[in-house]
Amino acid sequence: MISKQTFPKTYPLIDTHTHFDAPVFDSDRELLVQKAYESGIRHLVLVGYSYQYFKRMYTTEQLLNKLVPLTAENTDSLNLSQIKGHTAIGLHPFYIKEHSEDHLKSMASMIAKQRPIAIGEIGLDTFTESMKEPQVVAKQKRFFKAQLDMAVVHKLPVMLHIRKAHAEVLAILKAHDYDAHKLGGIAHSFSGGEQEAKAFVKLGFKLGVTGQVTNPNAKKLRRAIRAAVDSHGIECLVIETDCPDMTPIQCQVSDNSWPDKQSHDRNVPANLPWVLSSLSELLNVSPDRLAEQLWHNSCSALQKTWDYPLV
Hints:
Helix 3 (about 100-115) packs parallel to helix 4 (about 135-155) and helix 7 (about 195-200) packs across helix 8. The model is unreliable at about 75-80 and about 255-260 (pLDDT under 50). It is globular, with a radius of gyration of 19 Å. The protein has helices at about 30-40, 55-65, 100-115, 135-155, 165-175, 180-185, 195-200, 220-230, 260-265, 270-285, 285-300, and strands at about 15-20, 40-45, 85-90, 120-125, 160-165, 185, 205-210, 235-240. The protein has one domain: Metal-dependent hydrolases (TIM Barrel), CATH 3.20.20.140. By secondary structure, the chain is an alpha/beta fold. It has an 8-stranded parallel beta sheet with strand order 1-2-3-4-5-6-7-8. Helix content is about 40%, strand content about 15%. The two termini are about 25 Å apart. It is built from 11 helices and 8 strands.
């Protein structure tokens, strides 16, 4: 769902984490790309979680890169900047039981043939009791380290998925050859505490901020973001939709009697400005300054040199 409210100004934005290849977008993906372009989105990263969907992601990337905004005929061609799609591939820890050693080998082969923008989302997840079982955690750690090895070999940034395992992930990263100061990297949809936030930034990672920040009740998250910024400046943040999840509260259906509330609460890339707006208020930083810094932060995290465009 897209909020009917509008912003007084549009800023160039990079959506650093989406699942825009998901089937829930199949019926209106091209329309949503247009809405995203109108909202300022200029780059969009498709992030992997299961080997069986990697080809679908690359197909969606190709589609995005073929689409020309409907506003093109009214735009100076020299300044036209359509949305560019990018693919990151990785084996998500929450789906560890589905992953096999063959998937790791095939993923390594795929990276060599069709270089992704990053490896992710990878990490550790002990959110449920079944995910805490020793053999499950051991397999998660093995796959996490193997994918960090790939990142080092191919000099690619990683996108971290961490739930209820921040200390364990920090320990693995500190012992591994992967260096986020050199290769970039994002702690996606950060959910840790203040000290953990500062620890990941100290290692060279940017903290990924989602629509969760739009919720005033997300006090732990908001404290962690402020603590990291107090220590390291706004240079430590990037923003993301994580669509179709993490819908900003401004875009959610409040009436639970709505017959199809779940589909109407689907998050979309065009909602990213709400994350910018809430972060601007939280940090007391003007959206103009914050938007440009977030652009440069995203480029740093993804090891890209995209120019900050005029919208």
